Amino acid sequence: MQTFNPADHMVFCRKYKENLPKLPNPPFPNAKGQEIQNTVSAKAWNEWIELQTMLINEKHLSMIDPHAKQFLTEQREKFLDNGDYEKPAGYTPKA
To answer: What are the CA-CA distances from residue 26 to residues 18, 39, 85 (Å)?
Structure first.
C-alpha cells in the first residue's frame, strides 16, 4: 500500500523561491513540460496562464504564427525567472 507523502506534491518554485504545490501534470507533453512541472509551482503557472491570455488578446496574437509562439515562450521564461517581461496595458501583478 502506498502512503501519501505531501512532499511529493511540492516543488521549489523558481519564481517564488519557496516550496509550493506543484502542477499535477506537465503543461506540455515533452521535456520542457516535465522541467516546468519540476521547477514551477501551480500558483506561478496559473499566473502565467492569466498573463499569457492577456498578451494574446491585447496583441491580437495568432497561435498558428511561429513568431507569436516564440514571443510567448520568451515572455514565459522571463516571467517565471522574474525577468523584465512584457506587460499588458494597465497590468499590475498580484501581490
So the answer is: 19, 11, 23
Task: Establish if 94 belongs to a structural domain.
Answer: no
Backbone angles phi, psi at 8, to 5 degrees: -65, -15
Sign (positive/negative) of CA torsion 44, 45, 50, 56? positive
Q: What is the CATH number of the domain that holds 36?
A: 1.10.3880.10
Regions of the chain where pLDDT drops below 50: none
Domain containing 73 equals 10-20+30-79
Cα end-to-end span (Å), the chain: 41
Q: In terms of C-beta density within 10 A (0-12 exposed, 13-18 middle, 19 or more buried), how is residue 54 classed?
A: middle
Domains: count for the chain: 1
Distance in angstroms (rounded) separating the CA atoms of residues 7 and 30: 24
pLDDT of residue 90: 73
**Coil, strand, or helix at residue 46?**
helix
